[in-house]
Each structure stands twice: as C-alpha cells, then as structure tokens.
Please model this.
Amino acid sequence: MSWRIVVISNSAKLDYKMGHLIVRQENITKIHLSEILLLLIESTAVSLTASLLCELTKKKIKVVFCDEKRNPSSELIGYYGSHDTSAKIRKQIQWSEESKRLVWTEIVSEKIRNQKLFLEEVGKEKEAALLGQYLSEIQPGDETNREGHAAKVYFNALFGMEFSRTLDHPINAALNYGYSLILSAVNREIVSCGYLTQLGLFHDNMFNPFNLGSDLMEPYRILIDRKVYEMCPEKLEHEEKMELVDVLNQSVLLDGKIQYVSNAIKLYCHSVFDAIDDNDISLILFYRKEVVFDGR
Model:
C-alpha cells in the first residue's frame, strides 16, 4: 500500500529511473513509486520529465501542482483509471435519481453528525443540540438544505459570530487548502475506480470538473476543520501547509480496523459505488472519528 506524501517545496528536477522518482537538487533523492501516495509540487521552479508523468499516471499516484502563491491549482488525472472504465461510465450515467438522492442523504447526514460531535467535544453544547435538530429534520436529498443551515451554525460556533466562509482570512485560506487536499485524494479514487469526477450525486455545477469529488469528500472535511481549529493560524505558509498535508497520515477507525486517512478514503469511495450499484445504502463505510490515532 502506498503511503508517502512527497512535497517538493524548492527548485528541483524530477525524473524517472528503474521504478524510482529521482529528485535532483543539491543532493539526489530516490523514492520508489510503490511507496508514493501523493506528490505535491509546491514550487513553480520544478521541472518534470514526460516519462515520470507517464509512470505516475500508470501507478495512479495523485500529483497536485501549486501556483506561484503555493496554493493547489491543478492536478494530474489519467484518462483511464480502470480496465473497464467505459462500462463504469455507462453505469454512472444510468444511476437512478432515487439512488443518488438516498446516498447523498446519507453522506450529508454523516457530515452534520461529525460536525455535531466536534462541537460537543469543544464545549459548544447549544450549537451541537441545534445541529442534532437539523439532523433529525433531514429529508431525502436534503431538500430543505439542513446542510447549509448546519454549516452556518457550525462555523460561527468554531470561529466566532463575525466569521464567514467568504472572508479573506488565514482560517479560510487554511480550510480551503486542506479541503483541496481531501478533494484531490477523493478524485484519485474516483478515477481509479473508472468513474467520471464531473458527474455528481448532488453537485451539478457545469463549471466544476469535480462534482462527484465534491459530493464524496463531505464527511472528511471535518478532519481539516479540526486541524485548523487546533492551529488557529494567523498565516498560511509552508509550516502550516505541511500540518494540513499531514492530516492524510492520521489514522481513523473504519469498518472495525485502523486505517490511514488516505486508505480510509479509498475504502469509503469504493463502498459508495457499491451502495449505488446494489441500491443498498447500508454498504457505505463511514469512519468513526471517536477513535483517531497519530499515524506517523
């Protein structure tokens, strides 16, 4: 199982040789591709060979590129994630609206449940109780937008009544950076399973190439929320970003077993597709936040 998160923060040349990623800086570093889960190119002063990009794609290694401000701006996604991609896409197009509504209801309910538990942990009992009320009011497909109401209460409880997700603030910058990492991990699994990231369950924005990833990532946002709440960042620079990257190395309990977050996302995505195919939402595997371990 791949597990390394490789971050290239300074000028470097990356190429491929005999199964290894070769990082050429003042010193030469070799990392076997079988160990790499995510390659994060944080500097624009990095060059990569085409042969390396081809091998990274074959191994289904997620590659995230950052812009001049060192914020994630794009990622490498292969055309063919599975040997039966064409069949998977045809199946995805035919997913029934009812199945998608039921799965989305489970996903958004789990998201609010995680938010409620977190608020209880930090002593926000009143707000947690309100989220519990919203949870009990969720209708199929969340037609009354309990998710949106819960989000406003949740973020105000964590970061203050003046806080808004639209503010230009280090907290929002950290949240957005962390969310982009979770989204990339989810997109990796969607493509690996042979599905299209563009066709979502609930999200349906014609300008969003990652509608399905935006759906499936929802229960995992809380991991970033916890870290940002703990950090309470006054800036977002390299050190803060590495703390957020390390969230993927944490461990959670899923299906009775301790899993790295990165592997939990893989198992969870597979379970969602199984749930849709078998029309059985009980197949969805959600992690249990009550048991979290430091996976380093």
Remarks:
- The first strand starts at residue 4 and ends at 8.
- The chain has ten helices and eleven strands.
